[in-house]
Design brief:
The chain has 304 residues and is α+β, with helices and mostly antiparallel strands. It is built from 10 helices and 12 strands. The chain folds into 2 domains: 61 residues, Arc Repressor Mutant, subunit A (Orthogonal Bundle), CATH 1.10.10.10; 220 residues, Beta-Lactamase. The two termini are 31 Å apart.
Length: 304
């Protein structure tokens, strides 16, 4: 798990403090809030002012929220609208498949869970919740990357040194995912590698801690054991997840919807039907948000 940054935490505290109150506040007030001296806080406030997150009154020397946050808030509201549009499809998918379902959206080097439905009592390695993050690295998020431009694909591929050393094989897999329009991630040969130790307390595997543990388990798992691009109908698969992409009005991928950790192994012949059902749910969400399916949009794929 990444080390926490006290300076970043202070920045967040100051912005959240100003967001919860009307009016403006002086440097001394904000420094007292985060338990730091004024010399430490001044550069933080200067930077927040420079980027437009805060506005400084030069006469009163007070700070208040700036106009840049209006655009950020609008973008966050848009993400919430997408998650809200996905929820009915995720609920229906969860009840139909008897497993957890979710919507993931890219956020920097991670995928953030925008919506998560799990009506089962049993816990699962992907038993997360809205706001939790998983590492956006091969093979997770492959269906999202399959519809991205070459620059975004290369960024994703380079997050795993093994894949980055020979990306050609994985690029071929992304081509295959565009053909099927859904992705299947399976547990490795030994599912216990990625399932929590039952001797540990549940609290050790909740939320962000579970997400961090899952990402670490993926880093220790051979990628060839996880991403399925050729489904053998007579074979059983222990499924980690099946996902499909959701697209915006320009036909660009903005997130994925899918199922996670079915209760029992799935026969390959059934897996095709499950993938098509998940892809249909993603298409419905795309329609709900006024998006266009990427394969129906004529646009060049840039090389980055």
């Amino acid at each position: 798990m990444a080390r926490r940054s006290p300076q970043t935490e202070r920045l967040v505290e100051m912005v959240e403090f100003l967001a919860d109150r009307t009016g403006a506040f002086r440097l001394a007030d904000l420094a007292r809030l985060v338990d730091a001296d004024k010399a430490t806080c001044l550069p933080m406030l200067a930077e927040l002012t420079r980027v437009g997150w805060l506005v400084k009154d030069p006469r009163k020397r007070t700070y208040r929220l700036g106009p840049k946050l209006v655009g950020i808030g609008a973008a966050a509201a848009h993400s919430l609208e997408i998650a809200e549009a996905a929820r009915p499809e995720l609920v229906a998918l969860s009840e139909e498949m008897d497993c957890a379902t979710g919507m993931l959206m890219p956020s920097g080097d991670d995928l953030i869970i925008a919506e998560w439905i799990n009506h089962r009592e049993r816990a699962a390695p992907m038993d997360l919740g809205p706001g939790d993050r998983v590492a956006f690295q091969p093979p997770i998020g492959a269906i999202l990357v399959a519809w991205s431009n070459f620059y975004q694909q290369n960024v994703w591929l380079n997050r795993d040194p093994v894949v980055a050393a020979d990306p050609s094989t994985y690029l071929a897999r992304l081509d295959a995912l565009r053909e099927s329009r859904f992705a299947v991630e399976q547990y490795p040969v030994s599912p216990t590698v990625m399932r929590p130790d039952s001797s540990r307390a549940d609290t050790e595997f909740y939320g962000e801690r579970r997400a961090a543990w899952l990402s670490d388990a993926m880093r220790r798992t051979p990628l060839d054991d996880m991403l399925v691009t050729t489904i053998v109908e007579a074979r059983y698969y222990e499924i980690l997840g099946v996902s499909a992409a959701v697209f915006d009005a320009a036909g660009s991928p903005v997130g994925t919807v899918g199922i996670a950790d079915p209760a029992k192994p799935v026969l390959g012949a059934e897996l095709h039907a499950i993938g098509e059902r998940v892809a249909l749910a993603a298409e419905k969400v795309t329609e709900h948000i006024g998006g266009q399916l990427a394969w129906k949009v004529s646009k060049p794929r840039c090389s980055g």
